[in-house]
C-alpha cells in the first residue's frame, strides 16, 4: 500500500486486510500501528472513485476493534471533516450567520439521508453517557450531583467493557481452515519438468497453492491478491521483472510463512514427498533464483519452532556457494566441519571467509589446520589462493611443478597467481611454453588468463588467438571479444558483445542482489567494466568529451571498494585508450592501494611502469636524479614504497636528497616560493610539505626522543606548515611534537637528581615556528599517542615548576598552543577533540606564563565557540578531583570573558 505504483491493487489489499481483521477479531488490535497510518494515507491520496469503498472498509475495521481505534480518531476526523472551511473563517462570519446556518441545519434532516441515520434513537443515550465523562467536567453549569452521576455511569461502563473484551477475546479465537493435501501434492509434483520456464512455473504454482491451502485465515486471504499482483502467466512480462516481483511479494513476505503453516498439516509421508521435490529443484538445473528462494526457506525453517527441513546440509552448502550466498554457505560448511574436518571443507571455509571479507577468520582456519591436522592433512596451494596470498601460493606451485611438470592443475594455479600479481610477462611466457603441450580442454582452461596477459602486453595477435578458445556463451568470452572489437574499431560488434555479457550477468546479479549488496559487488564491478567499454567507444569517437569522461572515471573509481583486484580490472579496461603516464593520478592511487594492502610486488611493478625504469637495479644512483625528467610525485611514491618494504634508512636518505634536488628547481627556475605565478608551483609546494612531514614522521619513528632529535623533527614539521599553509595534518603534527617535547622535558626534569634541578639549564635552541615563514597544514600523526585524559590527569599530578626550572618546558608551550589552535581551526570534518583536550591541558598548567597567555588570547579569536562544547562534558565527567574541576570552571569563565 505504500507503493504508489501499485495503486491499482489497493482495493484487493484492503479486502484482504478486512478479511484478516474479521478472522482474528480483537486479536488484530496489535497490528493497528502498522496498518492504520498507511490506510489513512491511502484514503487521503487515493483516486476519488474508490474513496467511498475505503471508508466503508474502514467502518468495518472500526466495528471490529471498537474503542482501540481511539488513537487514530484525530486523523480519521481530519479525513471526514466537511465544515473545515467554515471553522477557519471563525468570527469573520458573525455578520452572515443568519444566511449560513439555515442551509447547514437543513443537512440534518435531508430526505436523501436514510431514516436510521436521521432518527433520534433512545439507544443513543447510552453512548452519549459513555462519551460524556471526558468533557463533562468542563461544563460550567453542572452540579455536584450531576458530576457524581456521570462519574458513576462511567465507572460502570468501563467495568462492563473490560468483561466484554475478555469474553470476546476468548470466544473469537479463529479455527484452522481445512487443508487439501491432494491439491498441494499436485502443486509440488516435479514430473515432466525440463526447461527453466517449467521450473519457474512450478515455483509459481507451488507458491500460490501454499497460500490458497494455508490453514491460516490471514495467509489464505492473500492468495487471490498475490495472484492478481503478480501476472505470472502474462507472456509479456520479462524474466527480470518476474524475479523482482516474486522476490519482493512472495518470497520475502508470504512464501516462507505459507510453507510453515502447511508443513505442520502434512503427514510424514507427504513431508518426505515434498522434500524429494525440493531436492530435485535444487539439483536439476542451475537456476539461482529458485535456489536462493529455497535457501531462504531452509534458513527460515531452521529458525522456526517447526524445526529444520530434513534437507542434506552438504547439498545446501554446495548450492549456497554456487549461487554466491556466502553467509549461508559458511553456516552449512561450519556444520560439516563440526562433523569431521577434511581438506575440502577447510579449503571451502578459507575461501568463503575470504569472500565475506573476514580475512582474520580465514587465516584462523589455516592456522587451525596447520596446528591440529598437520599429520593428517596436507596444506594445499589453493588455500593460499583463497587467502589472496599470491606470493606464497606461487612459491608452492613452482615447487610442485618441478616434481610434476605435466600436471595441468599446477600450471593453472601458477597462471592464476601470476595474473593476480600482474606479472604479464611471466604469464605470457608460461602460456606460450605450455600452449603446444596441452590438449583442447587444457587450452580452454588457459585461454582466459593467456588472453589477459597478451592484453596487458598489447600483443593483440596472440590475444585474438587465445580469445577464440573462450566459449562465446560465457561472460569472459563475450567480454574479451568486446575488448578486441573496441581495439579494432569494430564498434557495432563490440556493442553486441557487451549486450551478450550483460544478459549473462543478469541472472547472477539478480540472485546475489537478493541477499545483499556485498554479495553482488563482484558482478557490479563486471557491469561497470561493460559500461566503461561503451564509454571508451565514445572516448574514441568524440574527442571533445575525453576530459569529461576521464574526470567521470576518476570520480567513479573513488566510489569503488579499496580492493586491489577490482581496481586492477577497471584500470586494465581503461588502458585501451589511456596510457599510464597520461593518468598519473589514478595509477599513483593504485600503487598506494597496493602498498597499503601489502601487495609490494605489484606496487613496485606499477611504479617502475610509471618511471619507465627500475631504480632497484642501480642502487648507487639516487632516485632523486630521475626527478628532473620524471614527475616528482612518482619519485615520492617510490620512496614511500621503499619505506614500506623495510628499507627505512635508505628511504629516509633518498627522501632527504629528493627534497634538496626539488628545492634546487626553485633556484633554477628563479621562481619565488608560495606563489602561483608559474603553473605547477602550488602543486610542488604541497608535495614538498608532504615530503617534509614524512621526514619528520620517519625520523620520529626511527630515533628515540632527544634534544637534537626533537629540534630536527620540529624543523621538518615547521617546513611542512610553511609550504602548505592550510594543511591540517602538518599543523597537527607540529603542535603534537611540541606537546610531546613539553611532556618529555617535564618528565626528564622530575626524574633528575635534586642537585641538578637547582642548576640553570643549558641553552636550548628555540623550536622552529611556522611564523618565520608562512602557515600551512600536514599528514596523519604516526606513532604512539597516549590517552588524552590520562595525559591530562598525569600532568595535573606532577608538581608545578618555577619559570627558572622549566625553561625547557616553556620553550615548547607557546608553539604547541599556537599549533593546536591552528589545527583546530583547519580541522573541518576531522575530529578536533584530541587537539582541544591537549590545548586545555597546556592552558591549565601553563596559562599563567606570559607567552602562553598571549598565544591563548590570539588563538581564541581564530576558532569557533562551538569547539568547546564537545570537551565540556567529557572533561567534567573525567575530572577525578575537586581541584581539577574547580580549575576547569575557572578556565571556562576566563574563556567566556575572552569571547
From TrEMBL:
It comes from Stichopus japonicus (Sea cucumber). One of its GO terms (molecular function) is ATP binding. PROSITE patterns: FAT. Pfam families: FAT, mTOR_dom. The lineage of its organism: Eukaryota, Metazoa, Echinodermata, Eleutherozoa, Echinozoa. It comes from the Eukaryota. Belongs to the PI3/PI4-kinase family. The keyword tRNA processing does not apply. GO terms for cellular component: cytoplasm; nucleus; TORC1 complex; TORC2 complex. This is Serine/threonine-protein kinase TOR. One of its GO terms (biological process) is negative regulation of macroautophagy. It catalyses: L-threonyl-[protein] + ATP = O-phospho-L-threonyl-[protein] + ADP + H(+). InterPro entries: ARM-like, ARM-type_fold, DDR_Repair_Kinase, mTOR_dom, PIK-rel_kinase_FAT, PIK_FAT, TPR-like_helical_dom_sf. The keyword Nucleotidyltransferase does not apply. SUPFAM superfamilies: ARM repeat (SSF48371). Residues 315-899 form the FAT domain. Residues 753-783 are annotated as: Disordered. It is an enzyme of class 2 (transferase). Its EC number is 2.7.11.1. Keywords: ATP-binding, Kinase, Nucleotide-binding, Serine/threonine-protein kinase, Transferase.
Amino acid at each position: 500500500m505504500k507503493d504508489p505504483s501499485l495503486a491499482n491493487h489497493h482495493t484487493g489489499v484492503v479486502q484482504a486486510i478486512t478479511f484478516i481483521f474479521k478472522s482474528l477479531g480483537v486479536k488484530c488490535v496489535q497490528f493497528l500501528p502498522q496498518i492504520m497510518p498507511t490506510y489513512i494515507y491511502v484514503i487521503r491520496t487515493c483516486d476519488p472513485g474508490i474513496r467511498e469503498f475505503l471508508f466503508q472498509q474502514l467502518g468495518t475495521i472500526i466495528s471490529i476493534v471498537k474503542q482501540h481505534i481511539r488513537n487514530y480518531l484525530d486523523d480519521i476526523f481530519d479525513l471526514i471533516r466537511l465544515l473545515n472551511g467554515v471553522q477557519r473563517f471563525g468570527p469573520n462570519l458573525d455578520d452572515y450567520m443568519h444566511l449560513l446556518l439555515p442551509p447547514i441545519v437543513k443537512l440534518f434532516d435531508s430526505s436523501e439521508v436514510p431514516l436510521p441515520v436521521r432518527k433520534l434513537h433512545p439507544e443513543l443515550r447510552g453512548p452519549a453517557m459513555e462519551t460524556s465523562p471526558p468533557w463533562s467536567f468542563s461544563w460550567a453549569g453542572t452540579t455536584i450531583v450531576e458530576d457524581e452521576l456521570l462519574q458513576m455511569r462511567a465507572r460502570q461502563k468501563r467495568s462492563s467493557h473490560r468483561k466484554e473484551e475478555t469474553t470476546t477475546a476468548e470466544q473469537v479465537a479463529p479455527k484452522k481452515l481445512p487443508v487439501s493435501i491432494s491439491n498441494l501434492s499436485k502443486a509440488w509434483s516435479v514430473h515432466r519438468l525440463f526447461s527453466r520456464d517449467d521450473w519457474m512455473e512450478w515455483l509459481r504454482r507451488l507458491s500460490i497453492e501454499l497460500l490458497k491451502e494455508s490453514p491460516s485465515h490471514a495467509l489464505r486471504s492473500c492468495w487471490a491478491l498475490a495472484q492478481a499482483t503478480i501476472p505470472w502467466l502474462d507472456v509479456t512480462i520479462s524474466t527480470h521483472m518476474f524475479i523482482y516481483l516474486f522476490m519482493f511479494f512472495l518470497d520475502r513476505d508470504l512464501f516462507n510463512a505459507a510453507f510453515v503453516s502447511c508443513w505442520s498439516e502434512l503427514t510424514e509421508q507427504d513431508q518426505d514427498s515434498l522434500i524429494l521435490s525440493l531436492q530435485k529443484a535444487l539439483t536439476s538445473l542451475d537456476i539461482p533464483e529458485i535456489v536462493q528462494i529455497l535457501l531462504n526457506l531452509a534458513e527460515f525453517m531452521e529458525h522456526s519452532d517447526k524445526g529444520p527441513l530434513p534437507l542434506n546440509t552438504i547439498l545446501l552448502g554446495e548450492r549456497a556457494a554456487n549461487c554466491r550466498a556466502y553467509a549461508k554457505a559458511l553456516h552449512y560448511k561450519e556444520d560439516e566441519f563440526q562433523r569431521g574436518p577434511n581438506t575440502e571443507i577447510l579449503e571451502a571455509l578459507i575461501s568463503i571467509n575470504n569472500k565475506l571479507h573476514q580475512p582474520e577468520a580465514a587465516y584462523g582456519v589455516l592456522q587451525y589446520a596447520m596446528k591440529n591436522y598437520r599429520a593428517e592433512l596436507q596444506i594445499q596451494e589453493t588455500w593460499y589462493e583463497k587467502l589472496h596470498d599470491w606470493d606464497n601460493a606461487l612459491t608452492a606451485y613452482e615447487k610442485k611443478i618441478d616434481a610434476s611438470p605435466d600436471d595441468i592443475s599446477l600450471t593453472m594455479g601458477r597462471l592464476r597467481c601470476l595474473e593476480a600479481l600482474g606479472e604479464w610477462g611471466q604469464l605470457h611466457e608460461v602460456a606460450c611454453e605450455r600452449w603446444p603441450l596441452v590438449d583442447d580442454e587444457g587450452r580452454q582452461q588457459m585461454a582466459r588468463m593467456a588472453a589477459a596477459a597478451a592484453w596487458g602486453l598489447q600483443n593483440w595477435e596472440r590475444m585474438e588467438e587465445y580469445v577464440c578458445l573462450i566459449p562465446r556463451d560465457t561472460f569472459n568470452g563475450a567480454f574479451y571479444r568486446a575488448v578486441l572489437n573496441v581495439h579494432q574499431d569494430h564498434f557495432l560488434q563490440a556493442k553486441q558483445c557487451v549486450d551478450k555479457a550483460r544478459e549473462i550477468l543478469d541472472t547472477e546479479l539478480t540472485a546475489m542482489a537478493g541477499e545483499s549488496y556485498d554479495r553482488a559487488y563482484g558482478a557490479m564491478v563486471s557491469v561497470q567494466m561493460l559500461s566503461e567499454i561503451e564509454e571508451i567507444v565514445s572516448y574514441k569517437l568524440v574527442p571533445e568529451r575525453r576530459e569529461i569522461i576521464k574526470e567521470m572515471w576518476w570520480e567513479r573509481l573513488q566510489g569503488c571498494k579499496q580492493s586491489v583486484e577490482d581496481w586492477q580490472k577497471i584500470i586494465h579496461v581503461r588502458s585501451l585508450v589511456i596510457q599510464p603516464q597520461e593518468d598519473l593520478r589514478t595509477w599513483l592511487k593504485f600503487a598506494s592501494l597496493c602498498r597499503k594492502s601489502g601487495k609490494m610486488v605489484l606496487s613496485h611493478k606499477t611504479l617502475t611502469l610509471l618511471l619507465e625504469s627500475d631504480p632497484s637495479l642501480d642502487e648507487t644512483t639516487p632516485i632523486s636524479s630521475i626527478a628532473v625528467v620524471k614527475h616528482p610525485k612518482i619519485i615520492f611514491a617510490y620512496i614511500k614504497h621503499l619505506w614500506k618494504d623495510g628499507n627505512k634508512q635508505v628511504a629516509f636518505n633518498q627522501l632527504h636528497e629528493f627534497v634538496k634536488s626539488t628545492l634546487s628547481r626553485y633556484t633554477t627556475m628563479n621562481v619565488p616560493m608560495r606563489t602561483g605565478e608559474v603553473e605547477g608551483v602550488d602543486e610542488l609546494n604541497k608535495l614538498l610539505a608532504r615530503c617534509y612531514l614524512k621526514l619528520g614522521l620517519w625520523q620520529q619513528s626511527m630515533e628515540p626522543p632527544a634534544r637534537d632529535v626533537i629540534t630536527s623533527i620540529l624543523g621538518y614539521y615547521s617546513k611542512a606548515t610553511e609550504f602548505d599553509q592550510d594543511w591540517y595534518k602538518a599543523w597537527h603534527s607540529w603542535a603534537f611534537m611540541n606537546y610531546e617535547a613539553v611532556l618529555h622535558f617535564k618528565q626528564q626534569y622530575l626524574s633528575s637528581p635534586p642537585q641538578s634541578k637547582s642548576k640553570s639549564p643549558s641553552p636550548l635552541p628555540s623550536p622552529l615556528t611556522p611564523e618565520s615563514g608562512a602557515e600551512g597544514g600536514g599528514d596523519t600523526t604516526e606513532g604512539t599517542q597516549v590517552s588524552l585524559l590520562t595525559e591530562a590527569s598525569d600532568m595535573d599530578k606532577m608538581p608545578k615548576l618555577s619559570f627558572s626550572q622549566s625553561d625547557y618546558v616553556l620553550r615548547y608551550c607557546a608553539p604547541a598552543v599556537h599549533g593546536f589552535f591552528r589545527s583546530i581551526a583547519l580541522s573541518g570534518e576531522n575530529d578536533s577533540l584530541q587537539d582541544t583536550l591537549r590545548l586545555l591541558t597546556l592552558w591549565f598548567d601553563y596559562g599563567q606564563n606570559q607567552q602562553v597567555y598571549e598565544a591563548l588570547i590570539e588563538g581564541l579569536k581564530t576558532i569557533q565557540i562551538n569547539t568547546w562544547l564537545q570537551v565540556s562534558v567529557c572533561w567534567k565527567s573525567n575530572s577525578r578531583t575537586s581541584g581539577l574541576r574547580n580549575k576547569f570552571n575557572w578556565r571556562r569563565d576566563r574563556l567566556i570573558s575572552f569571547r
